[in-house]
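Page 47, continued from p. 46.
Same chain as before, 92 aa.
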Amino acid sequence: MEIQTFDSVWDALVDTPEQAANLQARADLMRQITVIINANGWKQADAAVHCGVTQPRINDLLRGRVSRFSLDALVNITAALGLRVYMEVRAA
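Result:
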């Protein structure tokens, strides 16, 4: 039996490095939004109002359901919080 190894968990989940990079970017942004929600002590209903989405969407975000969010949707949530997404490009 051959054992496969991967550079990251994201590489293990998808077929291409591009897909892995997209998943990682979404997960990173979701973690940062979660930190903001928790730091403010918002319940899911409160967070939904502040983020401009429904409570079930906040539930998905807080549960880390990366596949249910596009980068666009996460940028929109960040903007609704009055924040700006800053991106850095560097060697993999």
